Amino acid sequence: MKYFYSLLLLFVLITACKQKILSGKALEDKLNKTMADYLHETLKPGTEVIIKDLVYYPEKMKNIYICTFTVELKTATSDTTGTMMAYIPNDFSKVTRTQ
Fold it and tell me: How many CA atoms lie within 13 A of 97 on its CB side?
């Protein structure tokens, strides 16, 4: 009987530690936050970043999201709106800009 409880506990731990698959609004929010964090780290201090729009496509073979962001950048002297493209892996650990 104690082996049964040990296996049950092991099964619960394995299923609880599995990464949840995001979809819909939660996935968009996570992609936006990942890109915003990346931009805040790489841009000059004092630059305000507003992500206006996001279009993404999940690439299942490479386990990445191919994203196109419409971004508004504001500094003390100027503001501009542009398009940025990036690859973001499924674990949201890194952003690789392509354009």
Answer: 10
In three-state secondary structure terms, 80 is strand
| pLDDT tens digits along 40-58 | 888 888 889 899 999 999 9
Number of structural domains found in the chain? 1
pLDDT tens-digit series, residues 60-78: 888 899 999 999 989 888 8
Global pTM value: 0.73
Question: Does residue 82 sit within a domain?
Answer: yes
First-to-last C-alpha distance (Å) of the chain = 59
Q: What does the alpha-carbon distance between residue 40 and residue 46 come to, in Å, rounded to a whole number?
A: 9
**Residue 64: how many other CB atoms lie within 10 Å:** 19
Task: Look at the alpha carbons of 58, 62, 68, 71 in this order and tell me if their dihedral is positive or negative.
Answer: positive
